[in-house]
Amino acid sequence: MQSQLWCVPVMKIVTKAEIKVLELEAKDQGLSEDDLINQAGLLIASFTHQRLQHPDAIVILVGSGNNGSDGIVAALHLHQLGHEVLLYICNQRSPQDLYLKRVRAVGVNVIDAAEDAKQTNLKHYVNLCAIVIDAVIGTGRNRPLNKMTSSVFNVIRQQKLINHRLSVIAIDLPSGLDADTGNKDVNSLHADVTITLGYPKRGLFLLPGAELSDQLVLGSIGLGETKLRMKTPTLLTPKWVEAHLPDRSRFATKRSHGRILTVAGSREYPGAAYLATMGAARAGAGLVTLITAPEVQQIMASKLVEVTHLIPPENDKKGFGLGTGLWIRQQLTSYDALIIGCGLGRSTESQAVVSETLLTTQSESKPTVVDADALNTLAVTPEWWKRISSQTILTPHSREMSRLAGVPLQQVDENRWEIALEYAYRWGVFILLKGPFSVIASPSGELRIIPFANPVLATAGTGDVLAGIIGAMLARNLSPFDAATIGAAIHGIAGELLGVDLGNQGALATDLLTHLPLAIRSINTVWPVREFQETGFLHADAELRDPKTCVH
Questions:
Q1: Which pLDDT score is estimated for 3?
Q2: Which of 194, 397, 418, 488 could crosslink 170 through cysteines, CB 3.0-4.6 Å?
């Protein structure tokens, strides 16, 4: 078996319109529609066979379009490999369909849903099989699923409760998912794996449609990318992360791996100071220094023994004194990057520290991560973007972004990509909008999608850890865009590793800290989105590779 998982440095996320453009480009280069269908079918069969590793029963649900044709070609190859295949026609295909004629000619069992009273045959086969392939509707979805398809999908859902070894593989998209918007049909079938062909589709990373797939596999079918816009959103790959992660020299010193100043913590949120500071240290920073409120400093000094501490001028032994922000800017000359905001609280004194630190020009600015309460301070500061460094990374979640932009929360949630891009451009900063499949936008209009959606990270304090990781990357001379990207990737990988060790419930942000060094070492091990390329293990004859050539 020669099929393999593979990685590429850059993977664009496309719309339906862009797919059409790429298909026309392929045609200009000599690849016909049939060529693409045959390659897709071969890839689907290869992946399915590799997943099963031995002959087994498979049900393939097909529709009337090219997605169905992909499924039929897959059936030919799987039949050749010894699998018992049922081809179940959910949406009527033409009687002159050459793909169907060929599949019948080689002896594949074909049943038309319209002729299967009460889906009796479907239930029988599904109860016996290991895999159901959803090849009903791909990117062409423009209306609700019809009654027949909805009924068939309901049978599959019911049979999965009985046949516990049964898994569903969707081709290109789970049927009923809109490729552009992420909207889904109420009757769409949840997929254990979605093999998205050519390029990943936008709707796979947008809620609610993203919930329809447990795992994404990217299948190469020979489409180029020269017609894609330079600023087409990019899906992060492990190879890109590995290529851009700073090396750690054997001759390194603590200063050569970056010095970070962290301004965090308050009486209400002392733990945030710990998590952000240790996040930076665990991510490989050479030297991390904490500035926190005087009433918190003694507590942190006993817990954070691996970092250094700066004590601000005290006008008040509890909170920050006047002019602390200006004093912090003076200290920044000895550091490579700044993290500010984690757990600072919303007191007048804390807000003054944020404003004085971020919004003056009295000293040289440094690459900066702005998180949590520092974001809340900016949200109530008029035209703050006119006085902030262009090397700034904002790390809001949806509610914080809503406050910053002055737009309803629902609007942020429904337009995450557009909101991030618009305000990164408007404010001249980099924005990491956190959440499932976090997005990172640059002021120049580039957008990167982080392929992690992990419930382990949905707990208090993990955002503070993320701020620390990004700060560590900034301190090692990465650009703000790359630092935010790699920081989010390491954070996501650590979440995956933690989920394996402890499960998805009950893990804490402090548990995440210990997994950061492991995450850096395991970039390609637990990546949630894989790429699959058929490399010719199915040495079929020419007639099988091109089903139309032997139809009489």
A1: 35
A2: 194
